[in-house]
Amino acid sequence: MPDDKKQPIVVKKIKKGGHGHHGGAWKVAYADFVTAMMAFFLLMWLLGSISAEQRAGISEFFKNPTGVQGPGGASLSMIKLGGAMNVVKGDDHRDPPQVARSPDIHYVVEEQRRLDELLEQLKDVIETSEALKEFKEQLLLDITTEGLRIQIVDKANRPMFGLGSDELKSYTRSILHEIAKVINNVPNRVTIAGHTDATPYSTTRRDYSNWELSADRANAARRELIAGGLDRKKVGRVVGMGASVLFDRKNPFSPINRRISIIVMNRATEEGIGLTEGRIENDDAVVEVVPAR
After folding, report:
1. d(CA 36, CA 151)
2. Which of 80, 211, 256, 269 could potentially form a cystine with 242 if both were Cys, beta carbons 3.0 to 4.6 Å apart?
């Protein structure tokens, strides 16, 4: 007699021991973390091994990577960083302009060392010179993307020039003579820029303003630097900035805005303004010559 009871179906499930494979993503993340930490400590070591002036120059570059000077600067020209593409159109058979090449790294390091040494020499001269010591609060030194900048600023009751004129005070002549002796020891060329505050120039002449006044003062400073021993061939540019680049923007009428900026230019700046392409010099001015494009 057949058995009416159905046999139960038994399903056996076998569990495998151990943990499943999680992949290697964590290894990649850990490697990235280690690389980032190495880069960070290398950066800290490099920053700790350079001078305060070099760190200031690096900071200035990242604040202003285009090479256009900000407040207190003496130039608004762009520095050629290389890599630009020149296009010759149509029937233009003239030779294409030369693209500024990146300077050799050894030259850049040597030039930076020279400017750092020049900065230290100027500091020493300011501290020891009887002609400069009492004016050290009016002498501002720093390293910018254009080179070593020396700013001689006005102080209340102690201006550099006669009121509304380009006539130098006797102590300003002494300051410029001392500076000329030091900066003439390096082969770099210089930029001299005149600045005024925002007070409009008061005169009956309609064709004379702060622009003309600042340019005349820059040229007066140039002549006095040469009289103090600066080689006239080292003057690369003389400009009047008027009140367009204020040192103290919050107080446009402050005496500190009236100043002369002298920049000992690095090679990149010289190439950027075309000084490597030729110059015409005479006793009264320096005219830059740039070949026709």
Report:
1. 40
2. 211
Tokens of 121: 């020499």
pLDDT band at 78 (very low <50, low <70, confident <90, very high): very low
pLDDT value, residue 224: 96
Buried b (16+ CB within 10 A) or exposed e, 282-293: eeeebeeeeeee
Distance CA 231, CA 189 (A): 9
Which residues are CB-neighbours of 158 under 8 A, at least 6 positions away?
135, 138
Q: Say what the pLDDT of residue 281 is.
A: 42
Overall fold of domain 105-288? 60s Ribosomal Protein L30; Chain: A; (3.30.1330)
From residue 206, how far is each of 156, 199, 241 by CA, in Å?
Answer: 28, 16, 18
The pTM for the full model equals: 0.59
Q: Are strands 286-288 and 139-144 parallel, antiparallel or unpaired?
A: unpaired
Decide: 178 and 200 in contact? Cβ < 8 Å.
no
Tokens 């919050």 locate to 250
Distance CA 269, CA 237 (A): 11
DSSP string for 48-99? HTS-HHHHHHHHHHHH-TT----TT-S--PPPP-S-PPP---TT--SPPPPP
Distance CA 231, CA 39 (A): 45
Selection from 277, 269, 271 nearest residue 148 by Cα: 269
| Lookup: tokens for 64 | 């202003």
